[in-house]
Amino acid sequence: MKTTASIIAAAAAALALSACGDGERTATAETSVAEAEVTTEMPEGAIPDAQLEAAANRAVANASQPQDGALAPMTGNQTSTTAPTQ
């Protein structure tokens, strides 16, 4: 729980909301291990800045979490440096 709170706090601190051309709005957030950008062309009346920022925060928090299989051992010819278990 403490790690998740730290990630969200870091994401909130690194959050930037910018206006792009042609009515496009973008919110970005980043942590030490991930970066997320959420873009919309919807007007602020339809998607408030706070909602856009929240989406960027959720995206970076999700991207910062380890994914299943991300740390899976490699297959092939590998030598183990650990002693076999008895």
Number of DSSP helices? 2
Q: Supply the number of structural domains.
A: 1
| Strand order in the sheet with the most strands | 1-2-3
> Could you tell me the strand content as a percent range?
15-25%
Q: Portion of residues in helices?
A: 25-40%
Total strand segments:
3
**Structural class by helix and strand composition:** alpha+beta
Runs in which pLDDT lies below 50 for 5 or more consecutive residues are 9-15
Q: What oligomeric arrangement do these chains adopt?
A: single chain
Describe this structure in words.
The protein has 86 residues and is α+β, with helices and mostly antiparallel strands. The chain has one domain (2-64). Helices cover 33% and strands 19% of the residues. It has two helices and three strands. It has helices at residues 2-13, 49-64, and strands at 16-19, 25-30, 35-40. It has a three-stranded antiparallel beta sheet. Strand 1 (16-19) and strand 2 (25-30) form a beta hairpin. Helix 1 (2-13) crosses helix 2. It is rod-shaped and about 65 Å long. It starts with a helix and ends in a 22-residue tail after the last helix.
